[in-house]
Structures are given as C-alpha cells and as structure tokens.
Amino acid sequence: MLRLILSRLLAAIPVMGVVAIFVFLLLRLSPGDPAAILAGDTATPEAIAAIRADLGLDRPIPEQFVTWIGQLAQGDLGKSVLSKQPVATMIGQRVEPTMSLALTTLIFAIVVAVPMGILAAWKQGSWFDRGIMALSVAGFSIPVFVLGYIMVYVFSMKLDLFPAQGFAPLRDGLPAFLERIALPTVTLSFIYIALFARITRTAMLEVLNEDYIRTAHAKGLKEHVVLVRHALRNAAIPIVSVIGIGFALLIGGVVITETVFNIPGIGRLVVDAVLGRDYPIIQGIILVFSGVYVLINLAIDIAYVLLDPRIRY
Amino acid sequence: MRSRRFHMLVSAIGLSIGLGLLAGAATTAVAQDNKKVLRFIPHAGLRITDPIITTAFMSRNHGYMIYDTLFGVDDKMQVKPQMVEKYDLSGDKLTYTFILRDGLKFHDGAPVTSTDVLASLKRWGERDTMGQKLAEYTKEWKEVDAKTFQLVLKEPYGLVLDSLGKPSSNVPFIMPKRMADTPSTTNVTEEIGSGPYRFIKAEFQPGVKVVYEKNPDYKPRSEPATFTSGGKVVKVDRVEWMTIADPQTAMNALIKGEVDIWEQPAFDLLPELKKQKDIEIRNLQPLGMNYMLRMNWLQPPLDNVKVRQAILHAIQQEDYLAAQVGDPDYYKVCGAIFGCSTPLATDAGAVGTKKADVAKAKKMLADSGYKGEKIVIMAPTDLNSINQLPLVSAPLLRAIGVNVEVQSMDWQTLVGRRAKMDPIDQGGWHIFHTAWGTADMMNPIANAGTKGLGKQGGFFGWTEDPEMEKLRDSYAREPDAAKQKAIAEAVQKRLYEMVHYIPLGEYFQPSAVRKNVKGMVASPAYVLWNIEKQ
Question: What does pTM read for this prediction?
Fold first, then answer.
C-alpha cells in the first residue's frame, strides 16, 4: 500500500509539471492584458507599459516562467495582479465554501442515491424501480441553475425556510452552516443522485443473479445482510469509481451553483480571475487542483484495494 | 419481514434527508442583522484597493469610504472645503495657500500633515487627467508647516479648485506619505486613510466581501452632507459590501432583507422591484452616465474625417438608449458632451441626437472615398451595462453601406485590445463603445474623449487634433466662468466637426433600497455616509 501511495505521488510530479507549463503558456498566449485592466479608462500607452513593466509582464515568457517556477519551488504561488493579495491566501479563503459544498453534496448524494439504487435493483421492475429511474432521468435533464432558482423560490422566497443566498463557515456554528448550505447542496446533488442511483442499480443487478447471492439466501441470511454485505460489497467497485469521478467533477463544476446561491468559492474565484486576466490566481488554482485530482484518484485506487483484495498494483 | 424492509428503507432515506431537516430546524439567519450593520451590494467586486492606480468606480467608491479629500463638491457642483479649513489666492493669482482642519488623523493614529498631502497630490497628478493638466501649470508645491501648504503656479490657472475637488476618478484622496510615495504605476498595499470608515483588512475577500467600520476619530464638518462635500456623519457601526454576481440572487437577497442597498439593479428587474412594498427605487447619482461610440483615428478608413462624419449622421441616440436601458424614465436624448444637466450643458454642434439622416449619411459616405473596407466593432458580450450598443451600431452603419464586422469578446479582452495601435490584421480595431459617468466628463479637461493628443497621451482611438488642444488649454487658463462656458461650447462644436467620439445619450442608473434605510446622500460618486436604518 505504501509503495502504491509513494509511486502515485511521485508520478504526480511530472503530471503537475506538464500542467504548469501548459497553463502558463495558454494564459500568456491568450488575448487580454492585466496592465490595461489595472490602468483603467484614461491610461496612456506609457502608463500601461509602465504597469506592465512593474508586473514583470514585459519580460520574455521563458524568463517569466522561470521566475514563477522559482517562486513555486519556495512554496510561493505569487500575488494577485489586481488585489496584490497572496494567491495562497485567496485560495485558502475560497477552499472552505467549495469543499464544504462538494462534501455535503457528495455525502447527501451517496446517502440518498445508494439506498435508492439498491432498492431499485432489489425491486427491479416494480413501481419503486420505475419511479427511481424516472427521477434519475429528471436529475440528468434539469439544468442546475433552473433547479437552483426553483429551490430558492419555493423554500426561501415563498416558505421562508432558508436564506436566499450566502455561505456561513462552520466556525459560525453548525445551524448557521447547515441553513446556508442546505439548498445549494440539494440543488447540486440532484444530478449526482441520479448518476449514483443508476450506477448502483446496474451494478447491483449484475451481482444479484450470482450464485453466491443465491447461496446466501439459501443459508437463510436476512435480506438486508444479503443486499449490503454480499451484494453491495461486490458491486462497489464501479460505484466507488463513479463517486470518485463525481467528486472531481463536483469541485470543478460548482461554479453555477456558487453563482446562483452567491457562495464565494473557488469556482467564482477562477471565473473572476479569468475575466480579470489575473494570471497568478489562475495558475495557482489550476496547479493546486491538479494536485487535488491526483489525490482523489489515489484515494479511489486505495478504495479498490480495500474493497477487493484481489486487486494489486 | 415487511416491517424490517420498511425499517431499512426509512433508515436509508432518513439519513439522507437528515441534512435538510437539521437545516430546517436551525435558527433563522446568521443573526448579525441589526440596525448598526449596513449591507450593500456594489456594482462589482472590489479587487483593486488603490483608487489612484485605476479609474474603476469600485475603487473610487472604496476610496470615499476610507480616505478624505481636500475639497468636495455640492449639489450645484460648487467646490467646497473638506479637509481644508481655509484657503486663499494671492493677488497675482499665482499662489494658493491652504490650511488643514484641526484634528485630522489617519486610521493608524498619525496626524494628517502637509507632507502627506503633497505626496498624495504628486502621485494623483501623475495618473489623473485633470491632475496632469494641473501639473503642467504648477511651478511647485511648498510645505509651509504641518498644517499649511502652498501651490505656486507658473501662470494663472482656472481649474485649481475644480481639480482638487473633482468628485470622480481619479479623486485626489489623501493618504499617508509612506503610501503615497509608492510609484503611481504600482498598487499601494495598505488601506489607511483619514476618512469616515476604517478598512477591516482581516475580513477583506477580493471580489467577494469588503468590511468597513466606523472611524471613531473622524470629525465630520458641520455643514450638511451634499454630494461629496459637507459633514460625513457615520450612523452605523459597520458596512459590509457583499458582491452578488447574479442579478436574480441579488434581488432575492434585497427582498428578503438580507441586504439593504443594491447599487445597480438590472433595468429589466426594476418593474418587479417596484412591486415590493419594502423597497424603493432611488436615483442616487443625479448626474447620470453617458454612452459613447469611440472610433480609432489611426485605423483606415476612420483616419478620414469624412467617413467619420458619415457615420455620425447615421446614428440616432434613441435606438441605443431604448435597446440598452429600455425605460424612457431612465434615459435622456441629448447631444451635450459635458453632461445634459451640468453648468456646461449645451446642444451646440450636436448631430444625430434625435433622428439619423440616412440619406445624407449615405451620400457623405459615397463622397468620402470609402471603398468598402471592413470596419471592426468590438462587442463585449459579458458587460450587461453596454453589451447592446455594438448590436445597435452594426445595422445603423450597414444601412448606409458600411462593411461592418462585429467581433464578440469579453470586456477585459476588449480592454486589452483597445490599447493596441496595430493594424486590423494584427489585432487592431476600429470602434468600441463605452459608458462614462457625467462627473468624469464635466469639462474639457476632465473629459478624456476630447483630448487631441494622438499617440502621445490621447485616449484610446488616439484622436490627434492640435486645434482641440488649443481650445482645451484656453479653457484651462480661463478663470471667468462665462468665458469658460463659451470655450466649452467651441470644444463641443469641434468634437462633432472632427468626430472625436459620438455621444449616444445619457442614462440614470437607479438603486434599489429597503425603505427603512434613511439619509442616503445623492452624489456623483456612490457614498455611504449619513445613512441610518430605522
């Protein structure tokens, strides 16, 4: 196991190196000029050039890259072009809302979807099964922003059960945190519930016809023991894979939900940085999150080993 | 057996809905809401806290929160002392002497001194249009003592007080010398002023949230607050700027009372907001804003004044205002280039305000020698406040036979590209549209669109017009208001004759405010003093 972890972490270094080069070049070759943005409407060409020089953007691209890599080697992600705040601080401020939303969504989706998938497979062809499948089609079909607005309209504006927007960190207390995160969580989890429920159902259907399940039933085991301990465990590999991929997609895909519910997360930081051509922030986020994706994949691989002892790396 | 299955089902689903139930049972609101906290949705997120390096209105408005100014303007645009206790002008009109008020203190406790003022004005003068002009006429700034300083001019200059009291970007805010000594092309990294609010750096999240607290050491003037002058009395303990990017979400938050003021509600949401019993629509920026079509004089065929004049005759303001604003209550058709309701307002020389003359425009274009060259219009799709304007220009220009190509892009790409003087095939451009606050263009020196400096200091489009520069200089030298007005009229005529830019009308961006918010001060810049929540 240790060898697996070490080898994956070492393999991540060249991956992140390639990501760093790619992102750096892509940004430098794309249109837009942070100096012109900073200088404002009445800036003269001389003033823009002076700001560009001040930011080091007038230097050759290889020289800028070496400077940035040198900073990275010292653990410094640089400073925002516009706000002059350290990029690490800005990412730190935004990680909590995004990770909170991603985790609550993931947990909520798993807790709802996996039992639904199990029950749908167990009762294949029943009204319950058909209902679950219909729900999952709806989950895939309704755009997240439409669902978000509906949720706000019903539960916030009409029933006055939740705030209309905003995020409260956990340090403000669990009730405040849950009150703010509940609607975005349910909104964002809808599609993941659909996805996880379908995958769970399909995976369960494959194993429910296996001989060992029949044997378990013949032994007189209780239904839920057969379903959870014998069937679910053997069906877990594809489910875990999809959950892992889902988590990675969640982190990168929360921007619309963050916008609708005004959650100051990473998604909005990226969009703002791209629109503002704030290169250090974009570079920093992509680099950090490429590392996060590597760790998520590693976690999935470890889960495979734990769930199925036959798997070796 | 059945009951066990049911129990299993309930357990599984029960866990999953636990979050929702727990949240539903949670106490309402984050519960900080009280009458001493003012929550405000600004028109964009604050990222640049230095109001001198940039002209962005966000940074200007932030500046008014934490910095103070030597002078302000009242609702008649008369310049009034603010940090200055008194001033006088020598008999030869070459030396101004200013004395600061007693008790002025920066947020770090240090007194405001002449040294701080002179350093601040030096930095501002390097960046601001009016500051640069003032610098041309300045022989020296002299520090007399800690509270007294002098401006010695090379020759009499009529806009000294107008420059020091200018209400909009760049505003000559006064900051400590150590901050003001930062090169004007580098962001200052502190936020220490002597204004009515203190900046709470620990809670600053660029683009998301800015928190200010009442400055207990601030001593407001005794006069009533009007525009940017008078007593800046703070009646709340804390102001939170909360950026809400999505207009629908912002409206929901305002209706629910999660915020108190929305600076710039989308025009299409105003009818819904007007229906709300707890919300009022208020025009807090009575001078308004102005749309503008700017052409690139370096780029053929727009280097030909006859082509520019043909385009001018193809334009009618109503089309732009109706498309972009919609409700006639919030716009005004007018050809004035220094604002439609300002002291220098005039229709002299104006063309195309009410009705385009398509036949004349076609003939002018045919006579101009135009050979069907492509005209590139840059169209920012993401900036809701101006994104309709290029889409109006394109058919108007095509109607007279111009070969138009509309190139869509985001605003910041446009901002980067408009600084390029290159030919079209190397990333150049012909036309862009923008909007300016009237307060930023109230006279020929402030209005950057009138500059005739070409590549050497001109506004994007690089209009080179020595005749215009002579007029601007004579305006700057002229101390008499009546004569200034006559020169301003000549500037406007020249602008239309040479087509420096095409004014596309004035509009007013109202704010949506909860009715319990009282005392807001209308102003050319957005100011948040004098406000209380009842």
Answer: 0.87
